Amino acid sequence: MKYGAAAWRHVAAFCFLLLAVGSGTAAPAGTARTPSVATAPPPTAKPRTPSAMAAAPMSLGALLATTPADSLIGPLRRYETDRSMAAAAGEAALTLGRLHAARGEYRPAAEAFARAAARLDPARKPEARLWLGFAWLALGATDQARAALDEVASVPGPHRAAARLALAQAWDAARRPDRAAAVLEGLLADDPGEAAPAALDRLATLDDDAGHADRARRLRERLLRDFPRSIEAAAARRAVFSAAAARPDERRVGGIAVVIGSFLDEARARSLASAARSAGFSGATVVSQGQGLAAVHSVRIGVFATAAEAHRAADQAEKALGVSAELTRP
Predict the structure, then answer these.
(1) Are 33 and 26 in contact (CB under 8 A)?
(2) Most buried of 14, 131, 175, 278, CB within 10 angstroms?
(3) CATH number of 5-237
């Protein structure tokens, strides 16, 4: 599957969200995690007048805690300007960039992240460079994205795996799948951390496009084995099991059905079927037997031609959904 510029904007937007939620090095102590979670001032707090602000400079944490999120851009710009080249200006620029990114304003986000990278202490610069790479990637500027991400991906650190994953995305967007694959292989050979499912999924897709079907299959098997509840595993199941599973009327004779639950309550059965479809079993259905209060509603994820295919699907269902699967004749 190829990605266009618009799709890469969505990928980068997802990366913004992932980093904002999962990063262990966000705002400094005393600040809100992101602008979107800034809180209103307590009922007893009095509004600060311009003269009071001049007399007692507000900290970045206080600014975030006392300013509504939808009104932060102006105050953050002024805060950054007032502190010139101080480290606090870098933190303000980093927060401002995140705010622009959350609003889909990637150009001003990139400008703010560049200022943050220039002003922050050395230990904090990689985070700003990573955000800068994401912003350029969202804009479709792959050369600038690679320049920012290379600096983070080339040295050990907490943001290295995310930078390498984004760097592979930048190479792929630049129509260099060979370079993207090389970056992903290096990432998976080291310690990919939380980037592993996405790296396995993307590398498998690149192998498919290159005609390496066997290696793509092994990568997806590793993804399903090691990360069964990941979003990427759900996509892999759709690719693997949609081809193997047939509708009951297509393999009525000799087929093997995989049932993952039976209920007297039809609503519970439908809920489990919906969860199974979300986990990648697109053919999950509810099969009802009996009438009225005696009816039993079973959730079937598919009917398979061979016992091996059925056992594999059952194993994946148990790992992904925490259910007990059984094989039956439809």
Answers:
(1) yes
(2) 131
(3) 1.25.40.10
The size of the chain, in residues, is 330
Q: Are 137 and 169 in contact (CB under 8 A)?
A: yes
Q: What is the mean pLDDT of residues 24-37?
A: 37
The pLDDT of residue 49: 53
Tokens of 154: 């080339």
pLDDT of 209 over the 80 cut:
yes
Helix, coil or strand: residue 8: helix
113-123 burial, b for 16+ CB within 10 Å, e for fewer?
bbbbbebbeee
pLDDT value of residue 68: 87
> From the CB of residue 143, how many other CB atoms can be counted at a distance below 10 Å?
9
Architecture of domain 244-328: 2-Layer Sandwich (3.30)
Tokens read off for 287: 């099969």
CA 318 to CA 325: how far, in whole Å?
6
Given a contact cutoff of 8 angstroms between Cβ atoms, the answer to whether 278 and 228 are in contact is: no
**Rounded CA gap, 298 and 289, in Å?**
8
What's residue 75's pLDDT?
Answer: 87
Per domain, the residue ranges of the chain are 5-237, 244-328
CB 320 within 8 A of CB 230: no
* Neighbour tally for 210: CB within 10 Å: 13
User: Is the model's pLDDT at 211 over the cut of 50?
Assistant: yes
Burial of 70 (0-12, 13-18, 19+ CB in 10 A): exposed
- In the chain, the N- to C-terminal Cα span, in Å, equals 35
**pLDDT confidence of residue 174:** 92
DSSP string of 65-107?
HHS-GGG-HHHHHHHHHHTTTSHHHHHHHHHHHHHHHHTT-HH
At 114 the pLDDT is 95
Average pLDDT of the residues of the chain: 80
- Taking each helix axis as running N to C, give the angle between helix 266-278 and helix 307-321, from 0 to 180 degrees, rounded to the nearest 10: 100
- Model confidence, pTM: 0.66
